[in-house]
Amino acid sequence: MSTKNCSCRKKENKNRLKRGLRTPEEKFILPILEALIELGGEAHARDVLKLVHAKMKNILNTYDYEDLSSNNQKRWENTALWVKYRMVKEGLLDRNVPRGVWRITEKGRKFYQNNKALTVQDIVRI
What we know:
By secondary structure, the chain is mainly alpha-helical. The chain is about 45% helix and about 10% strand. The chain contains five helices and four strands; from the N terminus they run H-E-H-E-E-H-E-H-H. The strands form two sheets. A two-stranded antiparallel sheet has the order 1-4. Helix 1 (about 25-40) crosses helix 3.
C-alpha cells in the first residue's frame, strides 16, 4: 500500500503560514515579563495582552494581525499565549494561579533584570 493512499498520513494544513513571516516567539518574552512587572506582578490575561500589544505594536506585522480560523483570535495573541505556556514550563511565570491570571515568578523577575538590555538575537541563544 502506498503512503499516498494511507489514511494514517499526516494531514496537511494548506492555510498554514510559512515559517518566518510572523513575529518570532522570542520577541514576546521580555514584553510579557515587563508588562507583568508594570501590572504589579500579577494580572488577568486580557490586561497583560493589552499592555504587551502596546509594547509590541511597532514590531508586529500584518501577518500577526490576521485572524486564525481555528479560534477567531489574532495570530499575535495566539503566539503570546503559546509563549506564556513555554514561560510557565521554564519557571518564568507561576503555574499555580487561577485560570486567566498570569503571575511572574522570582526567576522571571531575575531573567528580566538580567536580559532587558539584550536584543532578540541574544535571547534566542539563551
